[in-house]
Amino acid sequence: MQGSLFQEFDDIPRQLQPLLTIPAVAKMLCVSRPTVYTLIDTEGLPIIKFGRSVRISPISLQKWLAQHEQKQGGSYVR
Question: What is the pTM of this model?
Fold first, then answer.
């Protein structure tokens, strides 16, 4: 997939891809860390918790982005 946010993981089998940190997701989406937490709290971005640590599966992130894109229908209101 050319231009994929997940290019660095393309050679790793999907089931073995490392989990993403909040800062890594923020960097991939070009948003701030607080925005990622807002997406988790209000938009249902799926997470995995290990004690106080929060991680996001790259596969779940891709699915969430695809669903969110479809839900928004491409309309942008400013």
Answer: 0.71
